[in-house]
Structures are given as C-alpha cells and as structure tokens.
Amino acid sequence: MFVALDDTDSREGMCTTFLLTEIIRRSELDVIGFPQLVRLNPAIEYKTRGNGALVVNLAKGKGAQTVIGKLDGREIRSYPEVLEEPSVDALMELSRDAVMEFSELGSPDTNPGIVISGHRFPRELYRESVQGEVSIEHAENFIIENGGIFLKVKSGRGIIGAAAAISWPMLSTTYELLVYRYPKPERMEASLKESIARRCESIPGTFNNFDPHNRYAAIFPRERTPVVFGIRGVEYEPILEAVPELLKSLPIAHDRYLIFSTNQGSDDHIIHNPEKFTENCSYEATGHVEGLPRNIEGSHYFVGFRTEAGTIDLAAFEPTKEFRERFRDLKPDDELRVFGTYRRGTLNVEKMEVMSVSRIFVRSSPVCESCGNLMESRGHMDYRCRNCRRKEDLPRYRLQERALVPGKYDVPVIARRHISRPYELEKVAWKAGILNRVPL
Ligand code: ATP
Fold first, then answer.
1. Beta carbon of 40 within 6 Å of any ligand 1 atom
2. What pLDDT score was predicted for residue 11?
3. What is residue 318's DSSP assignment?
4. pLDDT digits (tens, 9 = 90+) for 390-416
5. Dihedrals φ, ψ of 343, to 5°?
6. How big is the chain by its Cα radius of gyration, in Å?
7. Would you give the distance in Å from CA 108 to the centre of its chain?
8. CB distance 160 to ligand 1 below 6 Å
9. Which residue, 12, 261, 331, 399, could crosslink 34 as a Cys pair with Cβ 3.0–4.6 Å?
10. How far is the CA of 400 from the centre of ligand 1 (A)?
11. Where are the domains of the chain?
12. How many other CB atoms are there within 10 angstroms of residue 259's CB atom?
C-alpha cells in the first residue's frame, strides 16, 4: 500500500522525510522496494526548501530482504514483493496521527496532505508537478480518478506533492541515505562538518558531498531540522555498506537512518527545446550569445541569448560563485546549450555546454617590414614606422585568443539543486552504468 505525504515542515523545523520514518516505525510493516524522496518543480513558490515529497510502499514483504535503515534501534527491512497488504483505514489513521503530532501546523505555509493508493498512479501528474504548476483541485480529481484516497489538513496543498510522488515513474534513480537526530542535531563546528563530508567522498558512486573550492559541506542541511546529514549516490550498496561503520566512528549523536531512492540528479524538471519560455519552468535551450556579459551590484552577471523560442537573458547569480568566471568570458555569437529556470525574462543557468566559441578578430597596427618595429597610427589609414619612416595604409587583424574553450561547465556543488544532473554526475553514472536518459 503506497502512503505518500508532503508539506509538513516549515523553515523553523521538521522535515517530511523524518515524518515518513515515523510512519514506517509506527506501522511495524516492511518496506517494499525503497522509500522514495521525490523532488518536484524547484521553482515553485510554495516550497519550503528543496520541494521534496515522500512515498513508501508498506506491507508484509516476501523475497530476499535488505536492511535499508535503522529507526530507534530497529532494523528496517526492504523486500521485493508483497506477501500481505495492510488495511487502508488503519494506515490512514496511523499516518494522520503522525502528521497531526509532528507537522509544523502553526506555520501558515504548512498545509499537509496524505495520499494512499494500492498501486502507482500514471506518470502525468509527476510530469506536470516536476515541470510546471498544478492546482489542489487538479490533484484531487487525479487521485479520485485513479482510485486513491486522500486527507487534507488546512488547505491540504500537500496532496499535490504526495500524489505526484506516487506518480513518479522512476526513469532515472539515485539514492540518498539520511541520518536523523530528533528534534534537532547538536551544533557542529565547520571543521567537523568538512571532515565528515570528505570521508563521505570516499564512498564509491557518491556525489555532491563537498565543495572543496568553497569549503562547503553539502551533505549537511542549511537549516536545523531533524536531519543530521545525507549521503547521495548512484548506487545503494556502497552507501549501506559504509554507513554503520561511519556512524559508529563519528562524535555526533543520531537516532535513525534510512536510505531513499530519489529522482535527485535526474534533470526531470527540464523541458527540452521549448517553443516558448514560461515563468517558473526549467529548460534546456540552444542558441547564440548576444552582446557582452554585464554585471550588476551584488556580482550577478547577465548576457543576451538568441534562441528559436525568442531572445532572453541568461543569468549567473552570485551564489554560482566561480561559475561566473566562465560566464564572464562569453562573447557574441558563442554557441551554447544551457539548462536553467526561467523567471522574469531571465534563464538562471544551472549548467552550460559551450558548443563553439566565436572567432574574434582584433585590429592592430602593422609590423614594419623593414625593421620589425610595431608601426604607429597617425590617424585614419596612416601608419608610420618611427625607426625607418616607412608608411602603410592598412591595419592588421589578428585572431583573439579566447579564455573560454568549448566544453561542459557545471555550477559548483554549493550552488547545485537536488534535482539537477551535474555533468560531473554523468561521469560517475557512466562508470556505474546506472542512470538512463528516457524522456518523461
Ligand atoms: P522540504 O524539502 O523541506 O520537505 P519542501 O521544499 O518540500 O520542504 P513543502 O513544505 O513540502 O516544501 O511545500 C511544497 C508545497 O508545494 C507542497 O504543498 C506541495 O504539494 C506543493 N507543490 C509541489 N510541487 C508543486 C507544483 N508543481 N505545483 C503546485 N504545488 C506544488
């Protein structure tokens, strides 16, 4: 039985993934497959942090078991098949109780939703929710049409994410193991965070652990929630193998951990080759640079970009850090493939492939053919050699050396979105042969 939920947390606390662990713990059921953390449209205004929704298939399981976590000392087992389904009513009651007890209901922006279904939903709602915006009413109709049941608390906006999570077709999957300490982890020195993140780097197939250039330990959440840290990887085995030892050796307390399969690093939010750009949607677009990059206060950079869907601005904002150095080197007519979210006439670039750089010629004075000196300009079509008085009419043109070379450029780890697929990940995944590229 699939139980999904969303919108239980606020900036002050809680994390919907923790609430899901609580539902699993209270149910005393097995997990079929993996619990799932499904990221939706990263540009949606209602999100608290990473726009993540949760779903788990709970039942009595059968087949080969895998231990996928430990909740308050109890091992959580995953099975490939269902032996016996639980009662829908009992599961809804248990989920409602956990949501009412743990959600940040005092926050005006917390509007929990629970959805339960005996089967997965068709993928349309996932596509709509990861690439666009969906109304509560639309999600409600979709759940009813597909035979699910739901519970809305306050406005119940969370049913959108919850239903979309049940619709996730799992075309491109990675994993994240989350470690928890309820209600909040102890405060940690930056140096300790850095050393833990660096240790995670050595677990094969993991990504976005640490940003060495910006000394940023990306495994730790920015805000204080029950999450201590999370390790992302393209395979689950190396993470599950390494974590018990890692946790034992760390000087920080935890009370739970659980691994989720996720759509992180999938680029599922990207609409390819658009005919037009729509507010708060994310695109892959190819085109040519128009004009030179310009910067505004705060060290944000912009440049014009001509595509078949119209001319827009590309932006590299301050949080993209050293990526701006590459962006600043763009020149008119460079050919690019860019990925990013469109907002108010601007595409905020998440990654960029420079397909070709334009050839730029700069004018210079001729070199004197008699003595080899650089000639002086004396006005229009008049060059003279100081040494030997030789005269020439025409300037010379030379190809400017470009600082930017064709290639693929990621924003640094510190600026990456959960759902975006860094080029770097393609290399890891290519080796592991895991990620596929089936369009949604
Ligand atoms: P966290 O990642 O910490 O769990 P969050 O960033 O996921 O928090 P929520 O508090 O869950 O943020 O709020 C997101 C809200 O937006 C949810 O109610 C969800 O149902 C809704 N939502 C998600 N995607 C869409 C969409 N495409 N259109 C409309 N609403 C959406």
1. yes
2. 86
3. G
4. 999 999 999 989 999 999 999 999 999
5. -150, 125
6. 27
7. 26
8. yes
9. 261
10. 48
11. 2-262, 270-359+402-418, 361-399
12. 26
N-term to C-term CA, the chain? 25
Ligand 1 in contact with 140 (CB < 6 A)? no
Bridge partners, residue 41, by sequence: none
146 lines ligand 1 (CB under 6 A): no
CATH architecture group of domain 2-262 = 2-Layer Sandwich (3.30)
Q: Which residue has the tokens 């850095």?
A: 194
Residue 381, SS3 per DSSP = coil
Helix (H) or strand (E) holding 175: strand 174-180
- Label the pairing between strands 300-307 and 256-262: unpaired
Rounded to the nearest angstrom, the gap between the alpha carbon of residue 310 and the centroid of all alpha carbons in its chain is 26
Q: Letter for the amino acid at 289? A: V
Tell me which CATH code domain 270-359+402-418 carries: 2.40.50.1010
User: What does the pLDDT look like over 102-118, one tens digit per residue?
Assistant: 999 999 999 999 999 99
- Spacing, Cα 242 to ligand 1 middle (Å): 32
Give dist(CA 46, CA 245) in Å, integer.
38
C-alpha–C-alpha distance, residues 140 and 163, integer Å = 9
CA-CA distance, 153 to 104, in Å (whole number)? 11
Choose among 325, 210, 343: nearest CA to 283: 343
pLDDT < 50 stretches in the chain:
none
The answer to whether the CB of 85 falls within 8 A of the CB of 128 is no
Q: Which residue has the tokens 């990306």?
A: 218
Q: What is the DSSP string of 245-293?
A: HHHHH-SS--SEEEEEEE-TT--TTEEES-SS--TTEEEEEEEEEEEEE
- For residue 229 the two structure tokens come to 């840290």
